[in-house]
């Protein structure tokens, strides 16, 4: 069983890389951000609370995040392992996670702030089906419309310049110290996130010592 955490600043490609590992090695991909966005789209009570927080570019509180993670991990559908992204984001969350689960490795995607801004401000989200787009490398066939369902493409609430600067500040202040806690366990693997998606994936597999995927 493989149990991984993938970390990196917003826009570093955590979700993309986690999904590729999921498909190649039968891992369960647990994205805290995706869980929250699902609640926002479904207009749940939790979703309304999260929407206000995300629109302000702030991070969801520890109690709420830990409860969501505890519930998701409690499903125990990760027979071959899991890869979690979007968590933990500060010292308290890290201590909670390390006390609850044995982690095999933490993949840290390194990306300069200027590249983060370029990537994040080019992201779009389908307002109907939730499909993600990036106008740099994944433009829709019809401008402003989803290729899958034809829904309107919008900027995510947490992708405005103001919200992004707030999240970058939060990341450097609160999340980077998380890496130091994990480094004490000697489980952190730093990977340059500036390369192509395929090159980053190859580097991740190499540093984790993963075999070639089946098939």
TrEMBL record:
Q: Which UniProt keywords apply?
A: ATP-binding, Cytoplasm, Kinase, Metal-binding, Nucleotide biosynthesis, Nucleotide-binding, Transferase, Zinc
Q: What EC number(s) does the entry state?
A: 2.7.4.3
Question: Which residues belong to any copy of the Adenylate kinase active site lid domain?
Answer: 123-158
- Where in the cell does this protein reside? Cytoplasm
Enumerate the residues binding Zn(2+): 126, 129, 146, 149
* Region of interest called LID, as start-end residue ranges on this chain: 122-159
Region NMP, annotated ranges: 31-60
What does the record give as its pathway? Purine metabolism; AMP biosynthesis via salvage pathway; AMP from ADP: step 1/1
First-listed, main subcellular location of the protein, grouped into a coarse class: cytoplasm
Which reactions does this protein catalyse? Answer: AMP + ATP = 2 ADP
**Which Pfam family, any one of them, does this sequence belong to?**
ADK
- Provide the binding site for AMP: 37, 58-60, 86-89, 93, 156, 167
- Known InterPro entries for this protein? Adenyl_kin_sub, Adenylat/UMP-CMP_kin, Adenylat_kinase_CS, Adenylate_kinase_lid-dom, P-loop_NTPase
The highest taxon in the source lineage is Bacteria
Does this UniProt record's set of keywords contain Cytoplasm?
A: yes
Q: Where does ATP bind?
A: 11-16, 123, 195
Q: State the Gene Ontology terms under molecular function.
A: kinase activity
Tell me if Transmembrane is a UniProt keyword of this record.
Answer: no
Quaternary data: Monomer.
Functional note = Catalyzes the reversible transfer of the terminal phosphate group between ATP and AMP. Plays an important role in cellular energy homeostasis and in adenine nucleotide metabolism.
Q: What is known of its domains?
A: Consists of three domains, a large central CORE domain and two small peripheral domains, NMPbind and LID, which undergo movements during catalysis. The LID domain closes over the site of phosphoryl transfer upon ATP binding. Assembling and dissambling the active center during each catalytic cycle provides an effective means to prevent ATP hydrolysis. Some bacteria have evolved a zinc-coordinating structure that stabilizes the LID domain.
Family (UniProt):
Belongs to the adenylate kinase family.
Recorded protein name is Adenylate kinase
- The protein's organism comes out as Actinoplanes couchii
């Amino acid at each position: 069983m493989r149990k991984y955490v993938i970390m990196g600043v917003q826009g570093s490609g955590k979700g993309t890389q986690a999904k590729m590992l999921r498909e190649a090695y039968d891992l369960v991909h647990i994205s805290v951000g995706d869980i929250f966005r699902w609640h926002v789209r479904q207009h749940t009570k939790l979703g309304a609370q999260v929407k206000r927080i995300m629109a302000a570019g702030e991070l969801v509180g520890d109690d709420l995040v830990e409860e969501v993670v505890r519930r998701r991990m409690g499903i125990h559908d990760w027979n071959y392992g899991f890869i979690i992204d979007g968590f933990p984001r500060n010292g308290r969350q890290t201590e909670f996670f390390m006390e609850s689960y044995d982690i095999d490795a933490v993949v840290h995607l390194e990306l300069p702030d200027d590249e983060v801004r370029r990537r994040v401000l080019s992201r779009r989200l389908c307002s109907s089906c939730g499909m993600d787009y990036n106008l740099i490398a994944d433009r829709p066939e019809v401008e402003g419309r989803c290729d899958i369902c034809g829904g309107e493409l919008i900027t995510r609430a947490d992708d405005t310049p103001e919200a992004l600067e707030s999240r970058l500040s939060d990341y450097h202040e609160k999340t980077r110290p998380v890496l130091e806690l994990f480094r004490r366990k000697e489980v952190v693997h730093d990977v340059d996130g500036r390369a192509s998606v395929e090159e980053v994936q190859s580097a991740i597999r190499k540093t984790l010592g993963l075999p070639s995927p089946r098939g």
